[in-house]
Amino acid sequence: MSAGQFVAPISVIIPCYRCAATIGRAVGSVFAQSATPAEVIMVDDNSGDDTLTVLHELERVHQGQIKIVLMDMNCGAGSARNAGWAIATQPYIAFLDADDSWHPEKLRIQHEYMRNNNDVTLCGHQCVWLPESETLPTLPKNLHTTKISASSFLFKNAFSTPTVMLKCDIPFRFQEGKRCAEDLLLWQQIAFAGLQIARIESILAYVHKPLYGAGGLSAQLWKMESGELGNFVALYRTGSINFLLYVAATFFSIIKFAKRLIVTMLKNLVKLSLRKDGVA
In angstroms, what CA-CA distances link 126 with 136, 139, 253? Predict the structure, then answer.
């Protein structure tokens, strides 16, 4: 950390599962921030490979700034985030996934916004796919924000997890053991509790693989859909939404799933056709 650099009262939580090849980029983007977080908590979700060795090396390089939490068994990213959340010491939590990265101004911009808008409990921002060879997009000069309504979360997830900053002391957590759409369920629970949610309309986070049709969870479209449908059931059973909203959200979600499935199948057919024609 350079002399005079602002240390923001933020705990960064990164769930880690077999991410030895990508965690360095993620952590590098954290320590490249113009506002350094007070602590970085990396949770090894029982990887069983050399991930933990890499985490300890990063801990050694960034002495005193990284905490490592070990899960006894693999429980998924949501449970890993909860484990990090349980030992967080700062008033704000920022989530980052081990294969994603942040713009260097992300924490400064987001923390300033939440500090100046104390009624906002959760704040997200825009996120894009950034291929390895491309440079970071230029940020707009003016900050534009949008308040996000609870009902909108039934039809679209306004945030990807690496964009979210929230207040540490809220009485909600990720559902333990839930592996798909667990992040969306948390945002929905916060929103339907009447707490304020906002989105910064600037691109401050990056994923490094296509959102659909690539490896990992994004390839498991049906599991993702099942997770989302399960969220609606949970919200209905707790009285957060009425039956009409439950039916509407379920119907709309199934339509979106069908569209994604068709798009993915068409892409795969094009790739297969190109391979048969000898095109790389």
Answer: 13, 11, 22
